[in-house]
């Protein structure tokens, strides 16, 4: 198949038409307006006792698809089933756990018989905690984590660094029944918040690795996929995966990416948060479809394209409010289109339009516990890791690990202090209320007796 002939199917034609009209913001806004007609309820998420369990105030699970915990005092967790019957796929999309919801997160893993977690964000991004560190920081029994509130324990058994992502194998123990299960984690570490990787190639390699493990197949429980809010990067991953399954089964001529996204948004709000992420989804689907061609050669995948992700992501714009971002135009010109192996460099000279964006709605918890944007990239440069070798690489890696550990400890300390202050305020609330009630009653009785 010639790479010069880009008009090979309707998906590519649609993609190039949107590019030529510079219409990604309009297409994205149209999808958001269509979703506003759904009218699904968020009653459980809005209850007073459940609001603190949401990382962001405007990212809440629909009632009709929310995951319900069984062995817990509260059955609520900010998570939804996302089912795509046409692709025979079922996922659980959720937010990054908070410090006090880590037990709920692992209870969901246990109750849903989940075999794999796909983590698409870093723990700390832009100097803010985007997800509580929910797994042991060392290998072996000595680093075991025990969640007494849900009667579970977790041990990290194996860890592998694959440059732009990592894999971890856990053993999850049920302390009530004595049973245990293996759970894998695939941690993608170079995907910027409100942005996209520089190229679909590395992302497709990551997707291939996950698929080959079989964890996306419907034979076991649904995989749990999360970033910070569980809608941006998580939604992009699921959309590309589902669309490529449909292409493999029915052919790319029978695929409509926008309709697939609209169907997914019937299960969890706000999936895919920016026009850039929608555009990247098109590119990844088109590139992935090329690889389904029997004539596609593995040697066409350039080694350097896989490592090009490290340190090359563009700094994201100020994040828009999560709910409003579904319908509003982006607050900056769209970045240059990443180069695609199959489509070539498709940058056009049209002038991008822009509009002012307001800052994000702050989360319901203290800022030290949850960040003001859902999926953000760390701003530390990492290109030097890919460029260095030998002792220099080891020294740099150790130094960066120490810096990251110091930052994690500092953020955890701030989180503990904030949580301690919240506990003090909550402990004082009841006695102060009772005291005020007695004073008010005394004043009323005194006024009554006096008159």
Automatic annotation (TrEMBL):
Substrate binds at residues 193, 227-233, 273. The keyword Aminoacyl-tRNA synthetase does not apply. The chain crosses the membrane at residues 428-449. Residues 201-279 form the Tyrosine specific protein phosphatases domain. It holds the Pfam family Y_phosphatase. Residues 309-399 are annotated as: Disordered. Belongs to the protein-tyrosine phosphatase family. Non-receptor class 1 subfamily. This is protein-tyrosine-phosphatase. It comes from Spodoptera litura. The lineage of its organism: Eukaryota, Metazoa, Ecdysozoa, Arthropoda, Hexapoda. The gene is LOC111361027.
């Amino acid at each position: 198949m010639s790479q010069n002939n880009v008009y090979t199917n309707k998906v590519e034609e649609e993609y190039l038409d949107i590019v030529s009209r510079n219409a990604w913001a309009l297409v994205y806004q149209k999808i958001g307006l269509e979703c506003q007609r759904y009218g699904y309820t968020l009653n459980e998420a809005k209850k007073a006792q459940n609001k603190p369990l949401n990382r962001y105030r405007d990212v809440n699970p629909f009632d009709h698809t929310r995951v319900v915990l069984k062995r817990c005092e509260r059955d609520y967790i900010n998570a939804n089933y996302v089912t795509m019957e046409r692709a025979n796929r079922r996922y659980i999309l959720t937010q990054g756990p908070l410090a006090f919801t880590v037990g709920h997160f692992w209870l969901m893993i246990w109750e849903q018989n989940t075999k794999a977690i796909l983590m698409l964000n870093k723990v700390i991004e832009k100097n803010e905690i985007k997800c509580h560190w929910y797994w042991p920081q060392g290998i072996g029994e000595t680093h075991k984590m025990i969640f007494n509130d849900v009667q579970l324990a977790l041990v990290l058994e194996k860890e592998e660094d694959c440059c732009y992502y990592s894999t971890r194998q856990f053993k999850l123990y049920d302390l009530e029944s004595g049973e245990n299960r293996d759970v894998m984690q695939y941690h993608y570490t170079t995907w910027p918040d409100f942005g996209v990787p520089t190229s679909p190639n590395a992302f497709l390699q990551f997707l291939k690795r996950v698929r080959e493990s079989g964890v996306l197949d419907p034979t076991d429980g649904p995989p749990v996929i999360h970033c910070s809010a569980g809608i941006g990067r998580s939604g992009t991953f699921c959309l590309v995966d589902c669309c490529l399954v449909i292409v493999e089964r029915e052919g790319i001529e029978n695929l409509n990416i926008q309709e697939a996204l609209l169907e997914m948004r019937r299960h969890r709000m706000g999936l895919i948060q920016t026009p850039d992420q929608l555009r990247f989804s098109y590119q990844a689907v088109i590139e992935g479809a090329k690889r389904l061609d029997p004539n596609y050669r593995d040697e066409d995948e350039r080694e350097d394209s896989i490592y090009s992700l490290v340190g090359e992501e563009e700094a994201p714009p100020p994040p828009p409010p999560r709910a409003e971002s579904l319908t509003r135009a982006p607050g900056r010109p769209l970045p240059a289109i990443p180069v695609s192996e199959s489509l070539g460099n498709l940058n056009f000279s049209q002038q991008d339009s822009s509009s002012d964006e307001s800052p994000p709605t702050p989360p319901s918890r203290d800022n030290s516990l949850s960040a003001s944007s859902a999926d953000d990239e760390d701003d530390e440069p990492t290109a030097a890791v890919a460029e260095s070798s030998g002792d220099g690489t080891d020294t740099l890696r150790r130094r960066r690990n120490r810096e990251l550990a110091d930052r994690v400890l500092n953020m955890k300390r701030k989180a503990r202090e904030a949580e301690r202050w919240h506990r003090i305020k909550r402990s004082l609330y009841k006695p102060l209320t009772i005291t005020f009630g007695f004073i008010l009653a005394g004043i009323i009785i005194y006024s009554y007796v006096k008159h």
